[in-house]
From TrEMBL:
Organism: Paenirhodobacter populi
Top-rank taxon, per record: Bacteria
Stretches assigned to the Orc1-like AAA ATPase domain: 228-374
Gene3D superfamilies with a match to the protein in the record: P-loop containing nucleotide triphosphate hydrolases (3.40.50.300), Schlafen, AAA domain (3.30.950.30)
Schlafen AlbA-2 domain ranges (all copies): 59-187
Protein name: Schlafen AlbA-2 domain-containing protein
Record-linked Pfam families: AAA_16 (PF13191), SLFN_AlbA_2 (PF04326)
Amino acid sequence: MTNNQENVIERLKSAVDDRLLLPAVIELLIPNGRPYETETQLFDYKLKAPILSATPGKEEKEAHKIEIAELVKDAAAFHNAFGGYIVFGVKDKGRDRIIGFDAEFNCADFNKTLQRYTGTNIECLYNTISFKSQDGAAVSVGILLVPRRVSGAPPVKMQRRGPEKSAGKYCFGEDIYIRVRDECRPATNTHEDWDFLHSDRLPPQREHESEKKHVQSFLPARDEDFLKFVGRAEDLANLRQWIADPRSPTRLITGIGGLGKTTLAYHFAEEVVEVGAGGVDAVLWLTAKQQTYSALRGKMVSTTRVDFADARSLFEKLLQFLNHEIPIDDDEPTETELIDRVVEALSIYPALIVVDDLDSLPPADQKEVAAALNGVALRTVGRDLPASRILMTSRLDQGLPLTSIIKISGLEKDEFSIYFENITKLFELGAFEKSDVGKIFKASSGSPLFATSIARLIKLGENRSEVIEKWQGADGEDVRSFTFGRELSRLTNLQTRILYATMLLGATSLEDIAEVLDISARVVRDQISELQAYHLILTNIRRGGDSVISVPDELRAVIGLVRENLAGGAKPVEESVARANAKGGENEKTIGVSIRSIARAWAEGRVDEALVDAAELKRKFPSNADVASMLGAALLRVRPPKFKEADLELSRALNLGCKRPEMVLNVIGAKTGIEDWPGIRDYTANKISNDFSRDVALSAYISASENLIKISMERGDISRASDISIEVIEKISAKIRRTRIDRAFFEDLSQKRFDAARLYMDCIERNNARAGDRIRVFEAVYRLAVADVLLTEIIQKGLNSLKAWWSDVEMRPVVDVAACDILHKMINKLDGIEARMASIYPEAPVIQKIQETRKDLEFKGAMLQAALG
């Protein structure tokens, strides 16, 4: 960058801070009527501003929504950085770049939209300025001034993601954006951007005012095994976003031992101290860890300090850090009083509190302490001072909600390669072949602790080609015992048997484990829940919908430890698994050949012959789920189809646990044939598909519901028809929210949803014709809004119904305070409808009608309440 360019940048920083929107600014942005070749952190050229025509069509409205959102992202990014100017009427590239712009851009409306997305009032300014272009022609451009975020103010974060631009791509996510050079990007992805986000960002004439927030550090000395921090970019971005959110004050980093939970927490804590994020005054570190495994030394070592051993000692240590201890002459406080005292201290001195290795505590104390810490953090939210944050590390999830948990696993392959290179340099081992590093990565499952342990064995003289095999044997027992020993020691005998059976079976099912161990599936399911809390069991869903149970790759290295824990109980499990494998192999081979033969007969049109073969196969294997499924399918293919018999066989197949992918179509076909509409609804109610172009189960559910609605209406059962209608609506909305779907399928589902919504409203209105009952009509409209059905005609009905109900209330001879309480709840629901409408259709005229209705009802409610005394 030349001295002249640097001078322009510094002058632009000053102009932004002085809120200048005068012709003099044009000379900085378009010197001598010629735009710069590249944009910078201080300005952005745009061809035009987002403005709707007088009579916009649907496509224009969608395009406008995206253009506004892109401008919102730019403005938020500029605001979080130095502020800046957005110039309308200038092309980014090419010849004759100055096009000009003199249309009316409504800056006030844009600021409102910006506030809706960010939750922050950013007062942008706008002006149209005329000047002479390079060729001397008079031209006007529009200039939007985005102010700089005040130093020390919390960063502006997008409160929700922007509209969808293309398949699965959104204008922006729920991130904190900054302007760097000519790019708007999330500030939490790199340390450099995050540090810049929390800097003063002052213009040159005010740099003397810089007062970077000092965060007091109570971090312990770094662990002796701590190397240069590598990877974890996604986890760090997650933590940086978290500390910027004042209403979500707790996080737990969890995962098996040896993955670097403490390292991640320590690195993040150092970042907070360095950049001053989250508005905290101090970073406190407390640990219950008494011993840890040093991979560099190959043994357990004592930690440098232990801060607490139970809840009481934890809160006493916190008070000591915060200089808020209980006076000696006071009676010994209860644990509740200690917690109150901690909250009181944090109301004066907000802090980031890191509680490391929570599961060093006795099992009975861990969840109690985690819950107490979470409660402390929540009590600091919503005050004038910033909320305090609590970050915990633990191998268990401690019963916290999934939204508060950051689960880490081994390093990614590229990150692992960098980490291992650092280890080899430390041990002076020389370079490794890429293939050898790949083998070590696979053996260690990306665990930094495992990798260091393997490198240490090489340092002690083991051959590189044999080290992995030896590490997986006796030479790696100590580190594996540290990694999993604590978890394994706390398992019951039954849990250990289930874990061992899963390791022997490989990818398996809940039913297979239950059969091998001769216990009920319910018992297995309950115990697997406990094993998952220790991260010892994984459950994955295959494409066909099957649930597959397995163990993490890194756990396979400790099968010997698991067997040792079972002692004499290991052999019976091994024998049961061997018998199941032998039996399954023999039967599966015979059944597989027969099933392929039946499928071949179908393909060749020999459906009657296929039915005979399927019936014979059932005689041989009456308890096999796949055989029952094939017989049911064969009964559907004959002419005429035998729907009733097919339904019976397919029901048997389901009861036997059949998970074949064609079952869904076959069951729906059989039940459609016998017109078992309730059966179809029950069967498809919990089926979930991520297919973006169709959903067989959902379509069947809707069709069956439509038939039941028709029957209900013919019988005059209006209530039943309305109940089914709203269930259909909520089912469709769940699908649309959950899965990205293509346009044709979306339009089809939307139309069905609107049709069901109109029928639902018709039923509700017919059942609640009296004015005093019209509140139920409004509540139905609110339920539709929650399900994302926001039709102007329906919302208007809701508003009219709410006003009619209140008019009826006012005419009653006796009115009590309860009616005012109900009105207050309805007004809250009205606010909810407005918020949803504004988030999707911010310019909809009905929003003004909602606001007018709310004001009118609030006034009338207040008048009535005053009259009641």
